[in-house]
Amino acid sequence: MDPIRTEPYFVYILRCSDGTFYTGTAKDVEKRAVVHGSGKGAKYTRSRLPVQVVYTEKCVSKGDALRTECAVKRLSRQEKQNRIEKRERLIRGLSLLYSETEKDTGPIRIVRAVLDGTEIGRIRMLPPSPDTGIPVLTALETDSAWKDTGLEADLFYALCREARERGISTVSVPAPEEAGPEGTFFDRFGVSGKKGTALIRLPEG
């Protein structure tokens, strides 16, 4: 089974000079924002300069970013504003805390998301499976109030960094149907409908 490769991609929102929002995707938001600012970006932004990046959300692939972009575009202006404000609050106050618990089968690695002293999400990596010898990424849990703010990807990439530092390059994940309600994040990797587990190649850096 070939691992699914993750490809960090971003959804971004620009605030235009007339106060409207423009939503797009890019691998490098800063470079894309320069293109918009030069008047060579989307037709919509060309007549509404200057523009300002007010929101960025990291996704696990280009396809994931495009799906998220479509979801954001369907939001009302007020809903977009709410999403921007919640993301800003996360960026200002979120702490991603790493811990490790040693078990007979190996270490359990956990990344917890804490905001204002309250845990709002976590992700766990279990010791290697006896069948595959590969660590298992378990269902990612987040407070429903913060689900659509990029928090899930923040937790995933935080655990990726910790795993890479320990020489782990591939993990296995359960198919969403087998992981239960909290396994829907894994569907973003395109593993929906698959039986058993899928392998994911962790991004570098």
Descriptive labels:
205 residues; alpha+beta; GIY-YIG endonuclease; 2 domains; 3-stranded mixed β-sheet; 11 strands; elongated
Describe the structure.
Strand 6 and strand 7 form a beta hairpin. The mean pLDDT is 88. The two termini are 24 Å apart. With 205 residues, the protein is of the alpha+beta class. The protein is 30% helix and 32% strand. The protein has helices at residues 29-37, 43-46, 62-73, 77-93, 151-165, 176-179; strands at 4-5, 9-15, 21-26, 52-59, 94-103, 106-115, 118-126, 136-137, 141-142, 170-174, 197-201. The chain folds into two domains: 4-93, GIY-YIG endonuclease; 94-201, Gcn5-related N-acetyltransferase (GNAT) (Aminopeptidase). The longest helix has 17 residues, at 77-93.
Instruction: Indicate the percent of residues in helices.
Output: 25-40%
Rg over CA atoms: 18 Å
- Class by alpha and beta content: alpha+beta
Q: How many domains, in number, for the residues? A: 2
Report a brief summary of the structure:
With 205 residues, the chain is α+β, with helices and mostly antiparallel strands.
Topology:
Elements: E1 4-5, E2 9-15, E3 21-26, H1 29-37, H2 43-46, E4 52-59, H3 62-73, H4 77-93, E5 94-103, E6 106-115, E7 118-126, E8 136-137, E9 141-142, H5 151-165, E10 170-174, H6 176-179, E11 197-201
Parallel strand pairs: 1-11
Antiparallel strand pairs: 2-3, 2-4, 5-6, 6-7, 7-8, 7-9, 10-11
